[in-house]
């Protein structure tokens, strides 16, 4: 798709709709915009941040297991009392809950997507104004600055050092210099300079819209949790089919029973094999996670990002905008080499006025030195994170020509220059220092900085985020390694990190000394904590190096220089106030610009993963014992001991209700890999023990009871054993105990006692314990099974300690 679209980008336009001429310098007029709207030449592609309501209903209703259960439910409604059809009503209720929760999540996502939507600047009637993406029309003149993303296709009309990164489209990391007449493709973004382009393709014709047809922003893929559950369900299906066939033959052919009774007991054996609630509960847990984070102004653009961030063991932080706030203050200007302070202030004012889209550093200079009038700009060199400096050439008020550079002292100065020592002392205090230097070469020359004459040091103070220290401490407590990766001077970055109490910040490393070999680089990154003078490509390489060592890496950032690393990281986190390009590639956008929101995302992911792992054991224990009971019934040629109503009651009390509460409970456990293995290593032995104990009780009861009603008495005894063993599994999974977990387990046990004690409930569920010998025998077998369960879980825990 990408290459095809790129190849077709330069194709001749449709002769029926010729491309619009270049927009006039003032942009379209109001009447021209109205004409294009009337013709439908509007960028009307809807922003799709989630599945539609129809897709949500279809995904929750039309499932493999709902189809199986639906057929069995229809059969039971004809051949058995309503209490044997309760499992169908439970599935309807569960499906309804799933639809409602995901619909709520959709509403949250859609509202947040509108908040975080890009607002491109469009020039109309000579006035620049921000409009929504959907209001752009064919022929609009759209202004571009550093960090802006092209939202439609077009042709460059104005360019001032305009450099556009097309790496998200072509994979080529080097920015492309654009001149008037050059094409601009939607999805690319500006890394330096500025300009404007005329929209030539809008709506579904634009390249970004073509990509959207293939991949929605809201996706449920790339999740170990969901793929693990899918794997489990695949194997369950293969186990269930032959077992169910054997059970049908056994109950309908081998045993000479009443047909309706046989059908009911056959369905009773098939239904509990299906862990249908597990898929539902996973979707509900994810959906509620989205809603919870949405209330904290955190936009989750991809659901697995909640899970992914919980698995992260290294988080790479960009200093500016993450540890520090976007704003800066000029604290001092120190003239060098006898320069006149007043003249230096005029130069700084002129440099500020020369850039229509200043970055944070230049904005601080503009605020401190607003007088930039009287000097004519003859050439401008926008700031580039690769160069580490910007510049401008002027015709001064007295007619003299001069050219100036403003940037990193250690880039513009020679290694032995005495000003570097002063810069180092200021950096050690956590201050940011820029050098103003008079350029000797042309600004567009490759060696523009060579021989530049140092004129003044500009000292800026960065504003620390008040919550950054606590957030770094949280990651430390959770054994998540934090790495500060910044383009600023390493000593200055280290000083900021030290102020926030970050371990290892005193040994900040200049990234220019990092080895190029990926393995050696990974070793250096693992040993160190703070890195300065990191280029955009190095950020990307550092993420790859950490991933090569098996780390799950999250990258935070808000600037254009962070885009490549954000895109390659396992989880990209962008600030809401960051550039449009970073918001586009990040899986998580912190709309409130608060770094302190990240712990909430980590906690939400751990809650989802840890709790689903717990409750999955409950569901799959039921699947294992149901399959084994069916096999034992076939092998021993006996009636299946349970009717659907019995297993509906057991599933509700030991799995359904408690699993819902346990899945939504707080959980701070570190996310562990290999979900399927971790679940099955407990579910298989638990299911085997439950099946063995239940069938043993059933066989003993068959020898104990005789005559009319014997089968009902045998079923009641077997049900008692299975309930007690299942309750012990629940009691183990509910650990560590809190008051509400104890109350939950006790409430489920009390409900079962009520069923056994109330006559009409006994009749409704066909449960009545006969005599005293067999019920106490059932309890005794359950106690032995519980002891074996306890020993088995401890043995598994020791064997697979993680």
TrEMBL record:
The chain crosses the membrane at residues 61-80, 86-103, 235-254, 274-293, 624-643, 649-667, 679-701, 713-733, 740-761, 773-793. It is found in: Cell membrane. Residues 16-25 have a biased composition (Pro residues). Its main location: membrane. Gene3D superfamilies: Calcium-transporting ATPase, cytoplasmic domain N, Calcium-transporting ATPase, cytoplasmic transduction domain A, Calcium-transporting ATPase, transmembrane domain, HAD superfamily/HAD-like. Residues 120-214 form the P-type ATPase A domain. Keywords: Membrane, Translocase, Transmembrane, Transmembrane helix. It is a multi-pass membrane protein. Pfam families: E1-E2_ATPase (PF00122), Hydrolase (PF00702). InterPro entries: ATPase_P-typ_cyto_dom_N, ATPase_P-typ_P_site, ATPase_P-typ_TM_dom_sf, ATPase_P-typ_transduc_dom_A_sf, ATPase_P-type_domA, HAD-like_sf, HAD_sf, P_typ_ATPase. Residues 1-30 are annotated as: Disordered. It comes from the Bacteria. This is HAD-IC family P-type ATPase. The lineage of its organism: Bacteria, Bacillati, Actinomycetota, Actinomycetes, Kitasatosporales.
